[in-house]
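Standup notes, protein team

Yesterday: finished cleaning the Epilithonimonas ginsengisoli set.
Today: GLPGLI family protein structure.
Blockers: none.

Input for GLPGLI family protein:
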Amino acid sequence: MKILKILSLLAMPLVMAQQSTRFVYQATLTPDSTNVEKKTELAYLDTDGKRSIFYAENSMKRDSVMERMRATKNFDRSQMENLRSNLQFTIEKDLANQSLVYKSRIGRDNYSYPETPVFQWNILPETVKIGDYQTQKAETKFGGRTWYAWFTQEIPLQDGPYKFSGLPGLIVKVQDDKGDYSFDLMQTKKISELHQPLNRGQFITLSKSKYTEMEKKMQKDPVSFFTAQRSGGGGRGPAGGGGNRPGIDPKQMQEFQKRMEAEAKSKNNPIELK
């Protein structure tokens, strides 16, 4: 028994070392430039120090609801009405290589693209205490915007919300110069493992430029894009093949068209402008 107790004590630091960390950010967004009302929601950055995943809190809640519905076979989608997110993507980073995989859904299908963003950070002399952390300001240009970040060397992790990384410490706050997008660290907590989002189907891997091209097609004419996907046309990209799917009656199509067009118009101010 003594030997077992000793082994258990020796194993405890190893278990603790294997714990991951969740950084909880408040995301403040202006996805619609014609509507000055900002959207706020929480987003999670889960990391084990070698890799990280960034995703919306509502995404995890939706996954939980889906798993519960599958288990109970009670598919009441009204449970998801308040779980919509303006951060409809996940970003998986390899911190050693400062590379990432961006995953999202366009229309009916899942897409992903690899990227190694180049952040040319200009570290500024300005320092400020944010919450419990002493931070320093930095500036960069990315995605057609000028960004300001505040990082802390008290957490020696070259990571941050969204795609941002590469500073000598965790990014506690980052915002663009127009105030359209900002991410602010609200909470830090230990978790047993990184969250693995539910995947509905396989991901089609594209280049970033091809993904952006498809996203623009979807924004410009969502109904035609969906129709192409249903018929196995150009909407699916190089993977091809949509299979035969049941048709939609004209009334449903009209309602769908209005909804999709309104949603596309409301997303005219993306986080990356180019």
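Follow-up from PR in the comments: The CA atoms of residues 89 and 104 lie 4 Å apart.
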